[in-house]
Amino acid sequence: ECWYIISAEPDAVIYKGLKKGVTKELFAEAVEKGNVAEMLAKVPVEQGQCHFLPAGTAHAIGPGLLIAEIQTPSDTTYRVFDWSRVDDTGKARQLHIEEALESIHFDASGDNLSVTTAGRLIDCEYFKIDKGHEAKGCELPLSPGKMKTLIILTGSGTIAGAEGNHVDPVRNSTTAGIRQKQEISNVVEFKVGDTLLVPAAYEGAMQFADDTQYLTVTI
């Protein structure tokens, strides 16, 4: 998975991978003592950064952050530490300590994980993320071929789809059928914070009413 930092308060951090020298034994001991956070690499973050988190990376989000999380389609999460939190009844959430200890990559350091801010943010075998920036009044074609997920970071505009309207075949001396000219329809407005799913067969254009930044996710 990856985290794109949409907004960050001053001194905001994420926990990304392990500190150098942390072994499976040291980590297991920290779990028992309740000080797992001391084993994790604390990374200061800023708005506009994209942090890649490969499978097997211990990670956590600090306070004061709004993040877009993009990941492979999996519901498997092994929770090894929950900051000693409990619900209103005093019950803690389920932990998956044994599974987590078998899944964490103890030979990898958080120092080696990528941080990007522009262009192609992530290019892995599971998904790709591109950051786009278009000026007010611009138009960007949306070509068919791949499903896309658009996450609007700033600005606003519309997506207008070109939809073919069919008529019944008409017999005459020169043709066996007529297809009407494509017309613009299905206009969808978008604004900051919206996420839009664009089907693979969709053809149209994004039209920008304001200076706009957005993420495009493809697989």
From TrEMBL:
User: Which keywords does this Swiss-Prot/TrEMBL entry list?
Assistant: Metal-binding, Zinc
Q: Does the keyword Transmembrane apply?
A: no
- Record GO terms (molecular function): metal ion binding
- Zinc in keyword set: yes
> Which PANTHER family does the annotation name?
FRUCTOKINASE (PTHR42742:SF3), TRANSCRIPTIONAL REPRESSOR MPRA (PTHR42742)
Q: What is this protein called?
A: Mannose-6-phosphate isomerase
Q: Taxonomic classification, please?
A: unclassified sequences, metagenomes, ecological metagenomes
